[in-house]
Amino acid sequence: MKKTTAILLAILFSLGLGYQGYAQTGTEILKKLDQVMFSAKDLSAKNKIIITSKSGKQEVRESTVIQKGQEMRLFRFTSPASQAGIAMLSLPNDVMYIYLPSFGKERRISSSVKSQKFAGTDFSYDDMQAQPFSDKYNAKLIETTDKYYVLELTPKTKSAYSKIIAKIHKTEYYPISTDFYDQKNEKIKETTYTFAKVGKYWSASEITMFDLKKGSKTQIQMIQPKYDQGLSDDEFTIRKLIN
To answer: Which of 68, 98, 99, 114 is the residue whose CA sits 20 to 30 A from 239?
Structure first.
């Protein structure tokens, strides 16, 4: 009898019908993605940004970015001269500021305008915010392939997006692509990612955002990322934003 039971259990395991401890939920997968995206204590890098219009005309910009932990990020354009100094600061508790040199003062970004585009790019303020995905979205696993998981993400709070469909690398847990849907359930944007190992961290060497309605795209290429430098919280203040 014991031998028969053991054989039945072995068959169930082989069919995936036995113990389900290895089956991950969407929430668990999303948290692992956050661990990859925010694994470093801090980050500093230069960026090359290429904005391509529907007609194919390109604008090239440069910027710097620093980040600490999961919810502090300071992004600043450094060229061309017409964009230099424009900066965005993302802080905990859903707080964001933008600084426009032409106005000479910072402005807090309200939740109602976070869906607007940031400084003429195809990324919105919401896309630029430093915040774990698992804090912003509920996750449902809708497909598993031999290479990636597919998650359906729905906002936990009011958002311009009704849902996001995200493909997550099956073993390394970094994002492969994300598709954004508006409140009419129409796909309006999509993002593709290229990741490379820098030291012990997976680093997003290129992120491309496509605006499907405008026909434009914005590529952010990360150059010379540096990790775990011991950045101070003082680097993420309004004083640093405007200087």
So the answer is: 114
